[in-house]
Design goal:
Layout (H helix, E strand, L loop, with lengths): L26 E5 L1 H7 L8 E5 L3 H6 L3 E2 L6 E3 L6 E4 L2 E4 L7 E4 L6 H6 L9 E2 L5 E2 L4 H7 L1 E2 L11 H12 L4 E2 L1 H12 L8 H12 L5 H9 L3 H4 L7 H13 L4 H9 L5 H7 L4 H16 L5 H10 L6 H11 L7 H12 L3 H7 L4 H22 L4
Parallel strand pairs: 2-5, 10-11
Antiparallel strand pairs: 1-2, 1-8, 3-4, 4-5, 6-7, 8-9
């Protein structure tokens, strides 16, 4: 059975807001992730609030700042935390925006919790620490299970993305078999095709920053969603999952992690473009395969060609980051590459241009030879030749 609404938690996540004049007299609860994470003993993140029985006018009169589009959401006048009026929803169209919302004062907290995605995200906490858990979220937390709240799970494709992301974040949790069945149904019925690229990227970017990010892509693959939300991506559970663990362990950036995921794809940059990933992520996805191909080259012309292709003269830090990323795939001598970058930066291009009397063709050839010489010298000094 699920926990009773009068169950209490070991500690409150309200953080002393019980006497807040802005919320005094309002029926307010913290819901979702902050409650879940506190119960798991994890650091507190952003808090989301639900207000039951209030109107938009009442919220505005207390100084709350309206920011909601489809339904009333307000920012607290001091803390700027989000307070949403309790709401229900009804499917009215395709995709995650195809809903109409009702936020009347008769909507109960239990009504609001019923529309959430997973039971572990559908637990609320009152200011006195009392937990409201009509859907058995506490039991699923204890048993380490990710389970959908209701059949409406198939109506919102974002829930599939969130399921995959939570499966990666909480990699010790299993996914209920019936939840996986609904996720596959969501794909089969075409709901997932209504996801806009920006929303896909938002969830993927969050999921990539956890240690076991590979599980997110595997869940998307197992449900048939991966090819629909990230077309062109060739996912290899191994070694990609292991490489992502390495990237997390070594503190690599989002751009590096995304590039590692895309490295088996025919056109990694096109995968990044489809989801409108940031320019840095697109660049890393484009460049990493070439680095992996040439990072273990043994001759100076190949070293220079790789550095020129990656614009190491103007962006040495990015190039060395790409080399560090390659260490999650194969053995790489990072110290040698640092020496090579330093070597080509030691060349005085101005002096060469002056010696060649400003003749472009001669300058280009002389610079090339000077850089090759510098690379060979650096390598010899480092004992690599």
């Amino acid at each position: 059975m699920g926990a009773r609404p009068d169950d209490t938690s070991a500690g409150s996540v309200h953080g002393g807001q019980d006497n807040d004049p802005a919320t005094a007299g309002l029926d307010v609860y913290i819901v979702g992730g902050a409650v879940r994470d506190a119960m798991l003993g994890l650091p507190a993140g952003d808090r989301d609030w639900v207000v039951v029985g209030a109107t938009p006018e009442q919220m505005s009169s207390r100084g709350f700042i309206p920011v909601g589009g489809d339904f009333p959401v307000f920012l607290h006048p001091q803390t700027k935390e989000e307070y949403a009026l309790a709401r229900t929803e009804r499917k009215s169209g395709r995709g995650y925006k195809g809903f109409t919302f009702y936020t009347g004062t008769d909507v109960s907290l239990e009504d609001d919790l019923q529309r959430r995605d997973l039971t572990v995200n559908a637990i609320a906490q009152a200011p006195n620490g009392r937990l409201v858990d009509p859907l058995g979220g506490q039991k699923d937390l204890q048993q380490r299970v990710l389970r959908h709240v209701g059949q409406a799970f198939v109506e919102d494709p974002v829930r599939l993305l969130r399921l995959a992301r939570f499966a990666a974040r909480f990699d010790e949790f299993s996914i209920a078999s019936e939840t996986l069945e609904l996720a596959r149904k969501l794909v089969q019925e075409g709901e997932v095709d209504a996801l806009v690229p920006e929303r896909v990227w938002r969830e993927v970017a969050k999921g990539l920053m956890v240690p076991r990010a590979g599980r997110m892509f595997q869940v998307l693959a197992d449900t048939g969603a991966l090819a629909r939300v990230l077309p062109g991506l060739r996912w290899h559970e191994e070694p990609s999952s292991t490489e992502l663990v390495c990237a997390a362990h070594t503190g690599q950036s989002l751009a590096v992690r995304f590039a590692l995921v895309c490295r088996f794809s025919d056109d990694p940059q096109s995968v990044a473009r489809h989801v409108k990933a940031p320019t840095e992520c697109q660049d890393y996805a484009r460049l990493l395969p070439g680095v992996l191909d040439q990072v273990d080259a043994s001759e100076a012309p190949a070293w220079l060609a790789l550095m020129e292709r990656c614009d190491a003269l103007r962006k040495p830090d990015r190039f060395l980051t790409l080399v560090r990323a390659a260490q999650c795939v194969k053995e790489v001598d990072l110290r040698a590459w640092q020496a090579r970058v330093d070597a080509i930066h030691s060349i005085d291009a101005g002096a060469i241009a002056k010696a060649e009397q400003g003749r472009p063709g001669r300058i280009k050839a002389a610079l090339y030879e000077a850089r090759l010489t510098a690379l060979r010298t650096a390598s010899a000094e480092d004992g690599h030749l």
